[in-house]
Write a structure and sequence with these properties.
By secondary structure, the protein is an alpha+beta fold. The chain has two domains: 210 residues, no CATH class; 90 residues, no CATH class. It is built from twelve helices and six strands. The chain has a six-stranded antiparallel β-sheet with strand order 1-2-3-4-5-6, with no helix packed on it. A hairpin with a 4-residue loop joins strand 2 and strand 3. Helix 2 packs across helix 11. The longest helix has 37 residues. It is elongated, with a radius of gyration of 26 Å. It starts with a helix and ends with a helix.
Length: 334
């Protein structure tokens, strides 16, 4: 309710849109909100559950019967594991469809920007044409304004091809100028093909970075199987799929973030029940979530930029918090 309320006041309040349309928009947003709030909900539930067990001395009774903290919490771990598995399949099958429908309602029905929405849908190996030149692009990364896999064909007035340029990568410079890297140029003007290799070459293209965003794959609309295929296609083409590898691993790690939150919340719930009770534990829960999201976001950014491996980027925060929680659980006293 907080999520929807804040979003409603900040984005929808001043728009001239019927209530039924806004309600439908938020209906399709619910799956995305639920997946994002799942780890937070599990952490708060863990803190509250063990706080009440401590408050009523039920933990003491269980300790006296010879059970360890991990043994006591094992049914909860099992339940959260099942929730995490269900969360993954829910996000894989439902989330891409709901994200697409929500964005369509927002862009087409509410903002009336049909061209912007349909133009943003992914076009693999998109083609462009300008005077005397035709070029195609395999993929585009808007984060660093770079093209991966580019073919440029030049023609004379009789539409005879004069030259062909292949570049593994192209980076936007300024005012329509692009810097091509790892360039192979084939010239046909002499009647036969002459091949030249260049480490870099500057060319002018009519399309600017904003014009190329429409060919960038939107992973929010792809299920896991399609995302895996897209990553393999990029690898087979010799292109960098780091951004999409991170997104792929993020889907798995996010599904099990709730289990990590369950582990990290357990020692705090047990240790803090005498000082502040449930209110303090809920405050600790929000603090832990805040720290987790900072670490998670920093690692994701590093992975997308290619500074660290995609697996470390997506799973690093989970592993760090899991190790920290196991250490705290081991040190916790009855």
């Amino acid at each position: 309710m907080l999520f929807v309320g804040i979003d409603l006041l900040s984005r929808i309040w001043d728009l001239d849109a019927p209530f039924s349309l806004i309600g439908l928009y938020y209906l399709f947003k619910v799956p995305n909100i639920a997946i994002q709030m799942m780890p937070v909900s599990i952490l708060i539930a863990t803190l509250m559950l063990f706080s009440y067990l401590s408050k009523h001395n039920e933990l003491v009774a269980l300790y006296c019967s010879g059970r360890s903290l991990m043994r006591i919490a094992s049914p909860m771990f099992l339940a959260v594991t099942l929730i995490s598995i269900g969360s993954f399949y829910f996000s894989d099958y439902i989330l891409p469809v709901s994200n697409f429908q929500a964005q369509k309602i927002w862009m087409v029905d509410i903002l009336h920007k049909e061209n912007s929405f349909y133009g943003s849908l992914h076009q693999e190996k998109a083609w462009f044409r300008d005077k005397g030149v035709i070029y195609n692009i395999y993929s585009y990364d808007s984060s660093n304004k770079s093209i991966s896999g580019m073919n440029v064909y030049y023609f004379d007035d009789n539409f005879d091809m004069t030259s062909h340029i292949y570049a593994k990568q192209a980076l936007y410079h300024k005012k329509g100028s692009w810097v091509l890297r790892n360039v192979k140029e084939t010239d046909f003007t002499s009647g036969h093909a002459i091949v030249r290799m260049f480490p870099e070459k500057n060319i002018y293209l009519r399309e600017k970075p904003d014009d190329l965003k429409k060919i960038e794959a939107n992973s929010d609309y792809l299920d896991t199987s399609k995302l895996i295929k897209y990553v393999k296609d990029l690898e087979n083409a010799g292109l960098s799929p780091s951004k999409y590898k991170v997104e792929l691993n993020k889907r798995y790690s996010m599904s099990f973030a709730g289990l990590v939150m369950c582990f990290i919340g357990l020692p705090f719930a047990v240790r803090q029940h005498r000082r502040g009770g449930v209110g303090l534990n809920i405050g600790i829960g929000f603090m832990l979530v805040f720290i987790y999201w900072i670490v998670f976001s920093v690692l994701l950014s590093m992975g997308i930029s290619g500074r660290i491996d995609a697996y470390i980027s997506a799973w690093g925060a989970n592993l760090l918090f899991l190790v920290a929680s196991l250490i705290l659980i081991k040190r916790s006293k009855k």
